[in-house]
Design goal:
about 80% helix; mainly alpha; Tetracycline Repressor, domain 2; Arc Repressor Mutant, subunit A; about 0% strand; about 200 residues; 10 helices
C-alpha cells in the first residue's frame, strides 16, 4: 500500500473518531484502533493529535478551494462567478458532511490554533466575494462587510444543521435562503446569467 493511501486511511479513521467523540475526548489510541494500525504508524504521518486534526481542516479547505476555482473558470461575469463560488462551497460542505461537522463544529473552542485556521479559511472565501462584489458595483466597505456576513451565515447554518440532526435537504434549503437574502440585498438578482429574476424577486416583493 502506498504511503499516501495509508495516510488517507488514518485520516479517514481520525475523522470518524473526532466526529463521534469530539476533539478533547478523542485519543490517538482510538484513532489507530479505528485505522487498524500501530501507534508508530500514526506517528509516521502525524506529529500529534493536533497535527492530525489540522490535516482534516486542510483537507476540507483544499477540496472547497479546488471546486471554487473550477466553478469560477466556467463563467465570465462577476455576479455569475460569485454565484458559482457560493454553490461550490455549498457542494464542498455537503459532499462530506462528517468532515464538515468535524472541521466547522468540533473545532470550535477546541484549540486557539483551530480557531485561527478557521478564520483563515473564511477570509480566503471572503476575498473572492469581495472581489466580485466590487466588480458588481459595491464599494469596498460594503463588499467587505457583506462578504464576511455571508460567510458567517453559511458557517452558522452548517452548525445549526449538524446540531439539529436534520437531513441534508434541510441544509440545502438554508443555503438557498441565505443566497436569496444576500443576493437581493446586494442588488444582483438581474445580473446572473440564466437565472430568472423571479427566482429572487417574487419572494421579496
Amino acid at each position: 500500500m502506498e504511503e499516501r493511501d495509508r495516510r488517507s486511511e488514518i485520516l479517514q479513521a481520525a475523522q470518524g473518531v473526532f466526529n463521534r467523540n469530539g476533539y478533547h475526548q478523542a485519543t490517538i489510541r482510538a484513532i489507530v484502533d479505528a485505522a487498524n494500525c500501530a501507534a508508530g504508524t500514526f506517528y509516521l504521518y502525524f506529529a500529534s493529535k493536533e497535527d492530525c486534526f489540522l490535516a482534516l481542516m486542510d483537507k476540507l479547505y483544499r477540496n472547497i478551494m479546488e471546486q471554487i476555482l473550477v466553478a469560477r473558470s466556467q463563467v465570465a461575469g462577476p455576479a455569475d462567478k460569485l454565484r458559482q463560488s457560493f454553490w461550490a462551497v455549498v457542494e464542498g460542505l455537503s459532499r462530506d458532511t462528517e468532515l464538515t461537522s468535524v472541521v466547522l463544529v468540533r473545532a470550535a473552542g477546541a484549540n486557539p490554533l483551530f480557531e485561527e485556521r478557521l478564520w483563515r479559511v473564511r477570509d480566503a472565501f471572503a476575498e473572492f466575494i469581495v472581489e466580485d462584489l466590487v466588480e458588481c458595483g459595491l464599494t469596498s466597505e460594503q463588499a467587505a462587510i457583506g462578504a464576511h456576513a455571508c460567510v458567517g451565515a453559511l458557517a452558522e447554518a452548517v452548525g445549526v444543521w449538524v446540531r439539529s440532526g436534520q437531513p441534508e435537504s434541510a441544509l440545502l434549503v438554508a443555503f438557498e435562503e441565505i443566497e436569496r437574502i444576500f443576493w437581493v440585498g446586494w442588488g444582483l438578482t438581474r445580473q446572473i446569467e440564466g437565472v430568472d429574476s423571479t427566482y429572487y424577486g417574487d419572494r421579496n416583493s
